Amino acid sequence: MIRALRVAAMAGALLPLAGQPARADDAPAPQEPAAQVPGEAASAASAPSAPKWKWEGAIGPIVSVSPRYAGDSSRKTSVVPGFYLRYGRLSISNASGFITRRNSDDIFRGLGLDLKQNDRLRLNVALRVDNGRRSSDSTALHGIDDVRRTIRARTSVTYNLDHGWKVGAGWGADLLGRGGGNVFDAGVSHDRRVSEYTTWTLSTGVGLADGKYMRSYYGVSPVESTASGYPVYEPGTGITSVSLGTGWRTEINPQWVALWGGSVGRLLGPAARSPLTTSARQWSLNAGIAWRF
After folding, report:
1. Is the pLDDT of residue 34 over 80?
2. Please, how many CA atoms are within 13 Å of residue 250, restricted to the half-sphere of its CB?
3. Which of 8, 60, 73, 263 has the fewest beta carbons under 10 Å from its own?
4. E strand or H helix at 5, and its extent?
């Protein structure tokens, strides 16, 4: 009897302890974080990534050897500070041969805007200064009027094919009506990587122009005939030239790139028959180095 009472007393004393919080030593082990819900993972994967670039540019000297004017047999050597700057779809450049980090893009002279661009198709509009031609450019132009400087607008479309091939076409117009007329061009090019750092480009193209352009650059008016001694010549719309070009690009490092190349061509149609054309065969060379940022 006495033993039973003692057991009951001990049990009563232990009951209040059952309701007390457990000590830290007795706490259960921390659980692993809950796995990410599949729907949340898919949503994160599909979220648009930040654009890889906002702006880029390049600057450096460009050396070129070219005819004094289209159709001249003599040549000139020039050195110009080439530059290129792009912000988003907007770009400005004075050198069509510059290449920056977006190596798949052609660079157009002037102030340009990409209206549409994806892996296949690019639509671009650009404004640039057309310096025209001065009679002082060559002794062969003595007595021929200058072609005045103007603003030219150009619209172009480029379509990227597979294996480094692309086709393109463009139309340019004289916005100020200073005799520049309308010009058209179409071409095909191919890029081939010949080493880890060097890419070779081969291109061919054809140019056309309307009568206004032809008369300004290849025509001889009666007044000009008297002053120059050339016969009167009034050309019409037609093909101006065909050309074949090649270019090389070597990535020196992420900041520096070297460029060089050349082209050969031939004037055709009304341009080749002009008395101002002293050589229908045309060729040019160019080279440059650019710092990219």
Report:
1. no
2. 7
3. 8
4. helix 2-18
